[in-house]
Amino acid sequence: MRATRPHIQHLLEERGSSPDRLIRWGGTDNADLCLLVPHPDPQNWSVLTVISRGQEYDLYEGPIEGYLLRVLRGELLSEVFPDDFPAEDASYVPDPTA
Fold this sequence. Notes:
The chain has 98 residues and is an alpha+beta fold.
């Protein structure tokens, strides 16, 4: 991420973080990443989604629960996810390697 996405590196530096501190909590079948950006104050953690191929990303300032609820309700539109996300038949599949 340092080499291919310097704009995200800058975003993380502004928040006192770096790519090696990100926590991956999910992703898509297109290899898009869902990451947590830690902060010394747990109330200031944020959610970062990064497209696998390209420069698009979203930063959600708030807890992961609020992010998931708003995305799944269709209240939060993403530059990373497709326009029709979430699909009406959306499902969750746990990663067996995790």
